[in-house]
Amino acid sequence: MKCFGIQLILWSWGFVFAVSVFAAESQRQPDIVVYLADDLSAADVSSYGGTSIKTPAIDQLAAEGMSFDCAFVASPSCAVSRAALLTGLMPARNGAEENHSYPREDVLRLPKLLGELGYETAAFGKVAHLRSAPDYHFDTFDLKQDISDLRGTVKEFLENRTDKRPLALFVGVSDPHVPWPSESTIDPQSTVMPPQLLDTPRTRVQRSRYLQEVKNLDAYLAELRELTNKHLSEDKQFVFSSDHGAQFPFGKWTLYDEGIRVPLIVSRPGKIKAGSRSDAMVSWIDILPTMIDIGGGNVPENLDGRSFAAVLRGETETHRDRIFTTHSGDLLMNVYLSRSVRTDRYKLIWNPHPEFAFTSYIDLLLRETSGDYFKEWMTAAKTDPHAADVLARYYGRPQYELFDLELDPHELNNLAGRPELASVQQELSSELKQWIADQGDELTVFHEPLMLDAPETWLPRKKSRN
Questions:
Q1: Which of the ends of the chain has fewer CB neighbours closer than 10 A, N or C?
Q2: What secondary structure letter does DSSP report for 397?
């Protein structure tokens, strides 16, 4: 009887332990993997309608998860966009307003909250911007961002990892950011030219080089997914996106959709409907709050970002009814301010200083590895009225730009000032000005601008003045 009693007690303890382990495993937080491209426009991904190249790995992720057709960044330059991602705050509130600036020291970095929720956090490559990576409380980070380097560092980390906590892994590649490679497997003549660009021979060459890097980042996505499938749990949320659009005119550094609309695909087997698409408008400031929510945490109430986990679960089809974006320049190459508000149909862009000339690394540097095609644009503008019009729109932006995105998705026809849209413009302008005030946005001009009435100052430079 005593032996039976001991066996019963041991069996009972074993049963309780087994139930406890089962409960702990059933409540285990999902692993999270975030893969970030650098300067990739949504329109150049085949699952988003791109036709110049195929992106099979991205397409496969889309087939297994949810694709967001209305995902936007907070600002279309690298440092500012990534600071907003990792703080959940818009630029004026986190302190990183112009490119190459960083959040204030007192601003909470959201990866810290993931750590407090029990996650091991790791960042490889271009996740935060350059030197700011150590400020974000990652348990492990490595700044090498070329795919050739990441291929080894990420693999070594996952193969040698012994930490039993769930993992929040961030991997950022430098593709397709300039400089682009001198060789491309893509025939320049086969590329489909975006309608906002001039179709010149050198533009096609540089587009083919850019698209080669899109193919490269797609190929590495397949490798990364194979690695994480092998070394992480089956319950894994995988996120793919880009920090803003491509470095072509009317893309990066601008608030047109080519600059601010990005691919965003989220998969989690058994939790997110495979092959689904969402029209819900989401912002990059929402991504980390969503991860915190899914990880079982409470999202801080003072953030601008908010969780869209309910959209991922299929509980709602909407998230935001307005998207606000800002741009405050990129050192001396781009001294220009823009603010915008976007609904599902209309976008209003406010350029507070239309007297400033819009310039960038493209036209001021004319680099062989990126923007030298702009020389062909300037030559064409001397004799071709269409080319002259494109350059005039590039350098000079009116105070207000209003677009009907349903009828004009490429934002080629400015409707600001049209009597029939006066009420729309007034409503959006009032909302934008109120939002700017609520943000404490002082509309700071950080450097001396080039003036629109002094075109002699726009001459290309051999090297940056930064």
A1: N
A2: -
Sign of CA dihedral 86, 87, 90, 94: negative
Ordered per-residue pLDDT tens for the chain, 466 residues: 333 333 333 334 443 333 333 333 346 899 999 999 999 999 999 999 999 999 999 999 999 999 999 999 999 999 999 999 999 999 999 999 999 999 999 999 999 999 999 999 999 999 999 878 888 999 999 999 999 999 999 999 999 999 999 999 999 999 999 999 999 999 999 999 999 999 999 999 999 999 999 999 999 999 999 999 999 999 999 999 999 999 999 999 999 999 999 999 999 999 999 999 999 999 999 999 999 999 999 999 999 999 999 999 999 999 999 999 999 999 999 999 999 999 999 999 999 999 999 999 999 999 999 999 999 999 999 999 999 999 999 999 999 999 999 999 999 999 999 999 999 999 999 999 999 999 999 999 999 999 999 999 998 986 544 3
340: three-class secondary structure by DSSP: strand
Q: For residue 176, say if its preceding peptide bond is cis, omega within 30 degrees of 0.
A: yes
Question: What whole-number distance in Å separates Cα of residue 407 and Cα of residue 425?
Answer: 16
Give the separation between CA 228 and CA 335, rounded to whole angstroms. 42
Domains annotated for the chain, with CATH where assigned, are 30-320 (3.40.720.10), 326-458 (3.30.1120.10)
Q: Beta-carbon neighbour count of residue 12 at 10 Å?
A: 10
236 touches 30 (CB < 8 A): yes
Q: What global pTM score does this model have?
A: 0.93
Comparing CA positions, the residue from 123, 131, 132 lying closest to residue 171 is 123
465 pairs with which residues across the strands? Answer: none
CA distance 371 to 390: 16
Q: Residue 39 is which amino acid?
A: D
Residues 6+ away with beta carbon under 8 Å from 301: none
Instruction: For residue 230, count CB atoms less than 10 angstroms from its CB and return exposed for 0-12, middle for 13-18, buried for 19 or more.
Output: exposed
Whole-number Å distance between alpha carbons of 420 and 389: 25
Chain centre to alpha carbon of residue 335: 22
Number of CB atoms found within 10 A of residue 322's CB: 14
| Distances from the Cα of 314 to the Cα of 65, 129, 271, angstroms | 12, 33, 9
Tokens encoding 43: 């329109």
Q: In this structure, which amino acid lies at residue 194? A: P
Joined tokens for residue 81? 């966009």
**pLDDT at res. 462:** 67
- Whole-number Å distance between alpha carbons of 390 and 453: 17
